[in-house]
Amino acid sequence: MNFLFNEEQTSLGETVGQVLADHAALTGPDPSRGSDAEVWAALAELGLFSLLVAEEHGGVGLGLVDLAPTIEALGAGLAPPLIASTLVATEAVNRLGDAEQRAQLLPGIAAGETAIAIASAELGRGNDPVFAECGLHDGRLTGRKIAVAGADVAQMLLVVTRTQSAPVLALVPTDAPGVTIEPHADIDPSAGLCRVTFDNVAVASAQLLGEGSPGALDTLIDLGATAQSGMAMGIAEVMLKRSVAYACEREQFGKPIGSFQAIKHRCADLAVAVEAGKATSHYAFWACSEDAEDRASAASAAKAYCGEIACNACNDAIQIHGGMGFTWELGLHRFLRRAQVIEHAVGSRAWHYERVVAETLAAREVA
Amino acid sequence: MNFLFNEEQTSLGETVGQVLADHAALTGPDPSRGSDAEVWAALAELGLFSLLVAEEHGGVGLGLVDLAPTIEALGAGLAPPLIASTLVATEAVNRLGDAEQRAQLLPGIAAGETAIAIASAELGRGNDPVFAECGLHDGRLTGRKIAVAGADVAQMLLVVTRTQSAPVLALVPTDAPGVTIEPHADIDPSAGLCRVTFDNVAVASAQLLGEGSPGALDTLIDLGATAQSGMAMGIAEVMLKRSVAYACEREQFGKPIGSFQAIKHRCADLAVAVEAGKATSHYAFWACSEDAEDRASAASAAKAYCGEIACNACNDAIQIHGGMGFTWELGLHRFLRRAQVIEHAVGSRAWHYERVVAETLAAREVA
Amino acid sequence: MDFTYTDEEHRFRLELRAWLATALPEGWGETVFEPEDEEERYLFRRDWDKKLSSGRWAGINWPVEYGGRGATLVERGIFAEEMARAKAPESLNIIGHNLAGTTILHHGSQAQKDRFLPPIIANEEFWCQGFSEPNAGSDLASVRTKAVRKGDKYVVNGQKIWTSYAQYSQWCFALVRTDPDAPKHKGLSFLLIDMSSPGISIRPLRQISGESEFNETFFEDVEVPVENLVGQENDGWRIAMTTLAYERGPEDCLGRQVRFKQELEKLLEVCAAEPTANGVLADDPVVRQKLGRSIVEVEAMRLVALKSFSRILAGDERGPDASVIKLYWSHAAQRMNEAALDILGPAAVLSEGDDDAMAGGRFQTSFLQSKAFSIYSGSSEIQRNIIGERMLGLPR
Amino acid sequence: MDFTYTDEEHRFRLELRAWLATALPEGWGETVFEPEDEEERYLFRRDWDKKLSSGRWAGINWPVEYGGRGATLVERGIFAEEMARAKAPESLNIIGHNLAGTTILHHGSQAQKDRFLPPIIANEEFWCQGFSEPNAGSDLASVRTKAVRKGDKYVVNGQKIWTSYAQYSQWCFALVRTDPDAPKHKGLSFLLIDMSSPGISIRPLRQISGESEFNETFFEDVEVPVENLVGQENDGWRIAMTTLAYERGPEDCLGRQVRFKQELEKLLEVCAAEPTANGVLADDPVVRQKLGRSIVEVEAMRLVALKSFSRILAGDERGPDASVIKLYWSHAAQRMNEAALDILGPAAVLSEGDDDAMAGGRFQTSFLQSKAFSIYSGSSEIQRNIIGERMLGLPR
């Protein structure tokens, strides 16, 4: 019985956090993407992308739960979301890929040469990340995806699409003929969100991941939702720390503002939310790693709850920082913006709460 | 341009408040119904039930908005809900009754001799106050209503029922053959909630109120929702006043607890909520009186919003009173209990928010 | 990260589960419940406590020499979960075990240990807690009940409040002022007071739910032998703080969580069965959002407790974690209870004893009871101060 | 209770509406908008302010003798509503009209009135506000910017912050410390400072939305003639308090409410049109609950303002009502903006300039801007103190 991370897991997260901290611009006021390539290179050099890859393919063979503190660090450091999406895609290939696909993809991933962007969201489907208009018919992919983080610099796209009968996941190189990638104008330019259009793109059967596996899409959603929950908690924790630090230092009426209950109690409530959110997210990481029975419910719980906590934490931090909080220079807006990207990635809060209920009711019927 | 009550309206409310205050047991810790008949008699003597009745039928001919402060006082004083329901039913008879019905019913109402309980809620319909299983077929009423406040002491029931084709409102004497009235075991015994069963009860056409008028049920809902919103705000305001008084008087750590921001700011937020809720409720009273275009939306807005504010206000008051707050003796639980009765009367919060949206979208289409 | 139990821990769980199956009446929690009458319920719980003692399931964390099992923290967590899972009655002697007993174990003289511990673990003597006073609630250190030493006795005068089960207790574990001139935290002491002493009177305090768990207890010239002083005179505050840290730890939350989850299960059961105009309650998307949040929060209660639990297992001091846990479960449980009534629609008002009440009217009682969660055992305001100051390091 | 307007009030509204129809460019607010470039927008707003003056629609509440219309409170409410309804540009010279002008009107010398009022009402001189400082935010009375009298001049040193539009202003209306030895509320004075004086430097402060409405303004040995002192030396705090009460009244809220309602209308329009897997966004019951609450709260903003408005009309003093109004609209508007992004699903992140953005990406900008509502013009914490102490009478 131990719900803590071991030293290796923790120090991995700390190391990644330090690498990100070396690139101060990541959390600076300017949301442009200047240092993305350097950050990727530094993390690749550290071996981040080899961690989830099995030893036979040149990796370390860790499980997703081993990377939980690392993914929190990616969130806290406002790392480009493409990094986490590549890790999620790696795990998806581990679980859903056949031997050939694994052999073909994993060495490049482990070497940091294959960045994978996940293309799931579409317009016109409400907040549902599952239903796709984007269709695969007779080996041809046609449709449009939005908010694909890092598609413009990735080598590969992992696309949620569907045939007549069922959802499928397709691996499509970003330079495949018929693929058009345009950057969005959006709330968080640093996330590198792109619109990706597929115009009759040829997709061979070998490019389909987990074909015929009814749980393939669920697997991707669970992994993605869990990773997003980790990044959300990274943000929430930074917001807590910065709020507390400012509340200790900033004086008004002759006292540090943290001595006023209006501020102190808000920080305390935020600390409790961070504790609850992290526990929920950590459990989802474990449930994914172990393929626990409640994996889907744990992942959706984490996504819904942690997304909410991160958004609230950003609001709290801005309010506690007062006038400074809404200055561009202080940079809190960077976290506020990124929290929105996370909130709307892999399905909205309402969709995931809905999924928690569906899973829970289904489990009751089985029991 | 004047959104205030005039002196007559205000002093009417104050007078009713004073009469209720004379019956201290109404807001005492014991939720039983000892003084209901005396309270009714005192208010009847005051002429309360004649206020909405036209002069030709022995009344004063005031409009619903004139009674807004009075209905708030009924809420604040935890008056038996049958009093407000009789006022609502009076106004329903004014608006929907034909000449004969008015002549027959209104004099008795004005004299305080006809108390009317409103039977709308049913089990098994979710939170929808509109859809009725309780059916009227071939002049016979059959079905079961729950949470009918004061049915056991009322002379008349105003029943939401339906024929094959449409909802109708039926006036049924409580002593009609086939009517069975049993008191509930419920969260607020002082509300006099009853289960009313109709077993093949004969209902003549002359007993139908607003027959054929497509808006009859909406009218009853708007009047009822508005009255409930007023009572809710009466409760919320008492909770604010008692919280503030206690926060000024109770000392901990050598200071009145109201000097701590945790308490002070909670009171301030409650005061703002009370202000917003009252404004919303008062507007609904006005919109009902004037049959304004946005009557339905205003009434539902008031019911949803004020119900929420009253429930929160009770929670706030209990928390601010600390240990004393959850003692039986202090009696705050009486308001907490009544607020639940109000919250679930005439449709739930979610149903009314839903109705606000439906009305607003419909108005957009017209515009 | 590892949620598995050792074989030994698993055996412990099975042993307890097996014992509970025989100790509780047939159909317990399904068709058989605690008596509704308060006096009868007291007798029932007293008997249950004695049964626990006879099975060596009372004070399992105490050392073996005093009749305990020297249970590990994990075993205590398992104990809390299994008791809750079996819907076992609550112990009447929590104060005896968790507060009085624990304090005597740590700070009592050998004579006190010999005199008081055996009847506690045997549940032959029941204890109440004399901490709060009408003017010392959140500000506990401003206790005014005075104990003046006269020869070999203290003479106690004052009033305590929220003394749960005082009417059924043989002893009171009381915080009293022994030095009125010292700064307020410095003049307090712990006395063990025989509840049959002349000069003690008890007035029950009903709660908003209608139950009378609590009391006001008055002391008028009550004589207490000086040997019933625990620890040093005027050292009571320090002792109280160490003792209170043990009162509400993750073990407590783990047990509560199981009970809250049982409530939530009942709510899901109602939602899955209760018809609406177009299906059942659980089909309503708005209802589902509320259910979803409650499901997540009730699960988070468990996870938050497990985090803290793991930290203590790993050697961390018990600190403000207890406040985080308490603040979390109390508000999450209140939200669940609010959601339940919200969801039930017009039936929300029907309570125990009404034929039409959902799930026997349990949600209404739980709703009322839940209002106390954010007040007792340290109000949420106090917990937020503790978290802000002791965990986050914000200035006073 | 009566929501009708007198004939005269109605004529006032129609006159203004007619004027706006001709004064604003064709297609304004539909196809024609303010320039995006900040400098251009400033020029545009300056021109608009001059146009307002030329139509006698600037400073309508001022007495006729100073170029105003002596507008009644109701007319001011109508003015705010109509300006908002026409989506008219915001005035650049709010500080000139509402703060500097109002204060000079009430507390200025005749010479000051003659010198300063005409160019304000003509919008020939623009003003910025020198109140807050880096260390005097919520605690405004701890202003440190010093003004030391030397002969017929004050020499000003210090730093102001949140000086909106300082870069476009000719004058600054500044609260400065003239007696460093007096208790902090007692040593403050008001100075009118020519922004072209040597020693003034300005550093723009960007907001989280990317816009730069605010500045830091530095004063280094800036000389201000003593005749630019408003009221008595060291009487500045009292003057500031009376002036600030006029800054955020119900008129302000009525105008804002119209603009928030326009946002909400846009959101409803998007929800009614945007397809989902099974209908449009507005068919989703969970979306509808969020919309419902926003509709109610935006309407309540108007009603809360009207209540206060009516009380002032009935002769009540302007008091903590303004804090109630401000606290209400700021949080209600934030909730509406949160709800908007919540509802939009994956498109929530797409902003102005993206082809796929909903309603041109306006919700994203509004969302970011809304975060300042609960901070500027007195933070919510300060408003709660004011309400608690001045309206409810809670102790300090």
UniProtKB/TrEMBL annotation, chains A, B:
Q: Which UniProt keywords apply?
A: FAD, Flavoprotein, Oxidoreductase
Task: Look up the coiled coil feature and give its residue ranges.
Answer: none
CC cofactor: FAD
Q: Which Pfam families match?
A: Acyl-CoA_dh_1, Acyl-CoA_dh_N
Give every Acyl-CoA dehydrogenase/oxidase C-terminal domain span: 221-356
What GO MF terms are annotated? acyl-CoA dehydrogenase activity; flavin adenine dinucleotide binding
InterPro entries in UniProt: Acyl-CoA_Oxase/DH_mid-dom_sf (IPR046373), AcylCo_DH-like_C (IPR036250), AcylCo_DH/oxidase_C (IPR009075), AcylCoA_DH/ox_N (IPR013786), AcylCoA_DH/ox_N_sf (IPR037069), AcylCoA_DH/oxidase_NM_dom_sf (IPR009100)
Which stretches make up the Acyl-CoA dehydrogenase/oxidase N-terminal domain?
7-113
Its family remark reads: Belongs to the acyl-CoA dehydrogenase family.
What protein is this chain from?
A: Acyl-CoA dehydrogenase
Naturally occurring in which organism (per UniProt): Aurantiacibacter xanthus
Q: What is the lineage of its organism?
A: Bacteria, Pseudomonadati, Pseudomonadota, Alphaproteobacteria, Sphingomonadales
Automatic annotation (TrEMBL), chains C, D:
Q: Which Pfam families match?
A: Acyl-CoA_dh_1 (PF00441), Acyl-CoA_dh_M (PF02770), Acyl-CoA_dh_N (PF02771)
Q: Which domain of life is it from?
A: Bacteria
Protein's UniProt keywords contain Hydrolase? no
Q: Which residues form the Acyl-CoA dehydrogenase/oxidase C-terminal domain?
A: 234-392
- Alphabetic keyword roster: FAD, Flavoprotein, Oxidoreductase
Give the Acyl-CoA dehydrogenase/oxidase N-terminal domain ranges: 6-124
**Which residue windows are coiled coil?**
none
Question: GO CC annotations?
Answer: plasma membrane
**What family does the entry list?**
Belongs to the acyl-CoA dehydrogenase family.
**Name of protein:** Acyl-CoA dehydrogenase
Give the species this sequence originates from. Answer: Aurantiacibacter xanthus
